[in-house]
Sequence to fold (145 residues):
Amino acid sequence: MKSAGRANWIMVTLLGIVVAMVVLIFLGGQSPTAAAKEFMIALSSRDIDKLAEMSYFDPPRPIEDIKAAWKRTTDYGKYYKFAWIVKHSKSPQTDRASVTMDLTKDSNKPSAYSEAFPIELVKVAGKWKVDVKSLSRPMYPALPR
Fold:
């Protein structure tokens, strides 16, 4: 027989699990895969501010120098068209990750083919940033160094 005002322990447990999942989703931060996708979107749309914000250099550089380097890169690759898709991601350490993309260069040409390129990410102050020096030179024209 049920008593008025008593909560079922299964419902309370389920509610607790749902609350924990919501907290983890919103406080867990961005995944390396999402950060790599955001970087590639910024690269394809030539968003210099976003590229500079998501760039990691060791040793660190002033933001103005990073923006100038990305400006040169995007100006040089103004007519460079590419398509990409995430293949897989791995995180050997909590502050480092690698996301492999299939990138199709000159995607508007019938002879285009895809190649796998890794994107190395480093977690800095809770945000994933792309290690620009580790990007493969054939991936995009005139990448910053």
